[in-house]
Design brief:
- The structure is a single chain.
- With 233 residues, this protein is an alpha+beta fold.
- Helix content is 30%, strand content 19%.
- It has nine helices and nine strands.
- Strands 1, 2, 3, 4, 5, 6, 7, 8 and 9 form a nine-stranded antiparallel beta sheet that branches.
- A hairpin with a 3-residue loop joins strand 2 and strand 3.
- The longest helix has 17 residues.
- It is globular.
- The relative contact order is 0.13.
- The model has no long low-confidence stretch (mean pLDDT 92).
Length: 233
């Protein structure tokens, strides 16, 4: 069956709705959809760059994304999720899935209270030491694939880091990964929603044999609910 942006839109919206309903997110942006792209509605001035510094993540970049709503969801601790997919000829043609940690240890009550996040940071954390947290981004970018640039890869710390991944990621699998690794107590509390992400797939295996020789991220790209059993403890 051909993949459509409507199908992906509904999957992304379902995940964002759950995060809001479960109070794991303070805000979500509408999911934008076109014939080929599913993304989020930001409001940066037309013609503005999306990425300010392509070498390394910065606090300035985080603030820019918060200020201009360039995210799918603002999590309960001020961190961001960015979820974007591209579809072409009924198949997945690309994705950009990012988790951007908040660079400050912000009181969750302020985040969930509805006050503008940057005002909270400037008022209460202007003199605080920033936390050394790196964004985690998983890209599917077949058009740019070449030696050293796998079709699917994990980027952390800097743009030159591209760790090969076995296959593109379903949105629930990515968000489940984020919560399981960075918020394990919340993942366990909502295991019934997150755990089935281990069996959600959006594309076939893409990693090359030569990329499997080195360190890479791998998982069962054919797992089913029967394989999942009770899931991780």
């Amino acid at each position: 069956m051909a993949l459509t942006t409507r199908h992906i839109h509904d999957e992304v919206a379902n995940v964002l709705d759950f995060l809001m309903d479960s109070e794991l997110a303070a805000h979500r942006n509408p999911v934008s959809i076109s014939e080929s792209v599913v993304s989020f509605h930001g409001y940066a001035p037309k013609g503005s760059p999306f990425i300010l510094n392509r070498r390394h993540p910065t606090i300035e970049q985080y603030r820019y994304w918060v200020e201009h709503g360039e995210y799918s969801a603002l999590l309960f601790d001020g961190s961001l999720l960015q979820l974007a997919y591209t579809v072409k000829d009924g198949e997945l043609a690309g994705h950009r899935l990012a988790y951007v940690p908040c660079p400050y240890d912000v009181d969750q009550q302020f985040v969930m209270g509805g006050d503008p996040l940057l005002e909270v940071i400037d008022l209460f954390y202007a003199d605080a030491e920033p936390l050394l947290r790196t964004p985690v981004r998983m890209d599917f970018d077949p058009d740019s694939a070449k030696p050293g640039h796998p079709e699917v890869h994990l980027t952390i710390n800097g743009s030159d880091c591209r760790i090969a991944c076995v296959a593109p990621l379903h949105v629930l699998r990515f968000v489940s990964f984020v919560f399981e690794q960075f918020y394990p107590a919340y993942w366990r509390a909502h295991k019934g929603f997150f755990a089935p992400g281990h069996t959600r797939h959006v594309g076939p295996k893409k990693i090359l044999e030569v990329e499997q020789i080195g360190l890479h991220l791998s998982w069962n790209v054919h797992a089913t609910l029967a394989d999942l059993g009770d899931g991780p403890a």
